[in-house]
Amino acid sequence: MNVLPIYELPFHIVFLIFIIFSFVGWMSEVLYVGIFFEHKFVNRGFLHGPLCPIYGFGGLSILLLPQSLYSTWFLLFCASMLFGTVVEYISSWILEKLFHTRWWDYSHYKFNIRGRVCLLNSLLFGALGVVIIHFVQPFVMKFLSLFSDFVLTLSADIILVALTVDLLITVRRLVDFSVSMARIKAFGENLRERYGHEQWFKGESLSQIIASVKEYAAERKDEVSASILRKIDQFQPKMRNIESFMHRFPTLKSLSYKDELEMLKERIRRKISKNSKRR
User: Fold this and answer.
1) What is the pTM of this model?
2) N or C, fewer C-beta in 10 Å, the chain?
3) Taking the alpha carbons of 179, 183, 189, 192 in that order, is the dihedral positive or negative?
4) Residue 52: C-alpha distances to residues 22, 91, 151, 239, 272 (Å)
5) Tens digits of per-residue pLDDT, 118-175?
6) What whole-number distance in Å separates Cα of residue 105 and Cα of residue 103?
7) What are phi and psi for residue 104, nearest 5 degrees?
């Protein structure tokens, strides 16, 4: 099968292939989650735009495979499975080291490696590799050939600028996420330190801490209690922002803020339960 090796293509063509794969991956994630789980639109991308870069990198890594593998579907399947699994594992590790957060977790699947990758996804990567080499990549190259080199270069430049801006905004949001989680954790620790000795205080989890303190402050109705209630209310917008972010990554795990994240997940579950009952 004659598929031009990706390292022989101009950079702007390689970049556009990366974007197309990332967009197709984003669409697949949105449709999968929307149809089988949320039953509504959820932006599953790491970025704000309609892209899942891990699919782009995975697709490019498959295109780096030796052409001698292309004609043998079984070897191509095995190589794609290996490459895709390595890319996903490394991506998970890098994101965890950068943000101390695990964005996806396959621990509940059989045959997983530290929850970063699992056999089911690896098999899907293998099948995806065969589909990419024999069906997708030829179609993508035929589609790109419809446009002049000037149009392709200009499109790549515009998309690169937009992607860079999106990446910077996303990194800023991730930093805000960490800062907000740190503040919520510090607030819970302050409440535990201040009221931990009280008989009415419930401190098994952050959710119980806030609930018991709110109940106590509402009954007291003095200035100190009113101040506490105001501080709790000030955290509501931060919690809503974090919850909207967590909708995109339902298996999100934080290495530094486990209790705080569990509280927010419980809030999300209660909201979903209430919405279901209303329907």
Assistant:
1) 0.74
2) C
3) negative
4) 5, 12, 24, 25, 26
5) 998 899 889 988 988 888 888 999 999 999 999 999 999 999 999 999 989 888 877 7
6) 7
7) -140, 155
